[in-house]
Amino acid sequence: MLDSLVRVSRRVAYNHYASILAEARSSVPVGRIAPRAITLPEESYIPKAFIRPPK
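RESULT FIELD:
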């Protein structure tokens, strides 16, 4: 347990968490939407149960 406390305190001392936050904020330009993490193939199969019926 002491070992993990030492590691956490070193990260805090070196401003590790602040640098991660700064990187996360600057990874996507302002006004832009982050790219989707999961994309479907061009011809993906969608079961009929999920397709809305026409009005």
